[in-house]
Amino acid sequence: MLIKTTPRWAIPERDATPEAIFRQRRALLKSAGAAAAVAMVPGAAHANIFDRLLGKDTPTPDNEVDPSADLYPAPRNEAYQVLRPMTDENLATTYNNFYEFGSHKRIFDAAQALDIRPWTVEIAGLVGKPQVIDIDDLLRSVQLEERVYRLRCVEAWSMVVPWTGFPLSEIVRRAEPQSGARFLKMETFYNPEVAPGQRASWQPWPYVEALTLEEATNPLAFLATGAYGKPLEEQMGAPLRLAVPWKYGFKSGKSLVRFTFTDTMPTTFWMEVGPEEYGFWANVNPEVPHRRWSQATERPLGNDDSDRIPTLLYNGYADEVAGLYAAMDGQRIFY
Ligand code: MTE
User: Fold this and answer.
1) Which atom of ligand 1 is nearest to the CA of 159?
2) CATH no. of 64-325
């Protein structure tokens, strides 16, 4: 295998915009948009939302100290850098997709209702070692590292996030897949009592995403447990979410509870919701438009719509992952 020293998307640390400078741009959120977002949320949550949208450093409403807090920040793996400034933490944690808590972007306050302890992760299906692992046992038995990744949402916005976590291949290793296992299905929690979106019975809850085993063991496939040098916040998918940066963001399932190894391609949440628009592969490609909009450019969070940048094939990670699909030319691997 080729060992590259400087991937195309790598930049020296000095060129990344420091988080502190981005934080000064929180004034952006002091806008009519903030007021509109607040109007969507019931009374009790308003105070916290105002604090967050106005950029005050508020603790999470439950005020609980995350039991894994001492594991952060983890050392950065310098092999994973991005040629663009990091997204302001305040933007990344207040503009989210997490349909379990609503189909708009301001779900961060509603998501605090998710109880992230105790939390277990199950490994099941075609494996030699089925098991249930407590999240804290898992976190303390892996080597956490920080990686800066791009995230490109299928809706054509994007961000650059310093995730903390460990390679997804670690789950595969622990599972000891049987020879027939070809796919890894990943499921989000299911609890309609705390997640109002899951009360929509016409949607196929729980949220399911999946990869082939080759994809899951690609070194880029990462399980994030933290971001910005801290444990993940609920709205980002605490306590465990996927980060597969060469695919559209919806492939990166949040708040995962189960990994099932299977011989059949799983039907994912979005394949069921919109089979004409969302497929299994969902690899980023600027030349393959969504049925309703172009994928040629993207709006980095914090930029105006007039300040868009070109989208890159495989979101800039072609050197790392194009080989996975070399034999699949002509198939629907881009949506
Ligand atoms: N995971 C779950 N369980 N539910 C969701 O609605 N949304 C996906 C993905 N993972 C989603 C999810 C989409 S569409 C995107 S773009 C990313 O999460 C957004 O991640 P972020 O909110 O941390 O930016």
Assistant:
1) 24
2) 3.90.420.10
List the chain domain ranges. Answer: 30-59, 64-325
Instruction: Dump pLDDT digits (tens) for 142-177.
Output: 999 999 999 999 999 999 999 999 999 999 999 999
33 CA distance to ligand 1 centroid (A)? 21
Ligand 1 nearest atom to the CA of residue 155, by list position? 16
Q: Is the CB of 315 under 6 A from ligand 1?
A: no
Say how far apart CA 313 and CA 305 lie, in whole Å.
21
Among 49-63, 72-86, 127-141, the minimum mean pLDDT is found in 49-63
End-to-end alpha carbon distance in the chain = 28
Q: Which residues pair with 258 in a beta bridge?
A: 122, 187
CA dihedral over 84, 86, 91, 96, signed as positive or negative: positive
| Strand, coil or helix: 247 | strand
Query: What phi and psi, each to the nearest 5 degrees, are found at residue 91?
Result: -75, -45
The region of weakest confidence among 32-36, 93-97, 257-261 is 32-36
As a whole number of angstroms, the distance between CA 10 and CA 191 comes to 40
Backbone angles phi, psi at 29, to 5 degrees: -80, -10
Which parts of the chain fold into alpha helices (H)?
A: 19-23, 32-39, 46-53, 89-92, 108-111, 135-141, 169-175, 213-216, 269-273, 318-321
Residues facing residue 106 across a β-bridge: none
* Contacts for 291 with CB less than 8 Å, ≥ 6 apart: 276, 277
CB neighbours (10 Å) of residue 287?
A: 10
Q: How far is the CA of 128 from the centre of ligand 1 (A)?
A: 31
pLDDT 10s digits, 286-307:
999 999 999 999 999 999 999 9
CA distances from residue 8 to 26, 157, 164 in whole angstroms, order as listed: 30, 21, 22
> What distance in angstroms lies between residue 310's CA and the mean position of ligand 1's atoms?
22
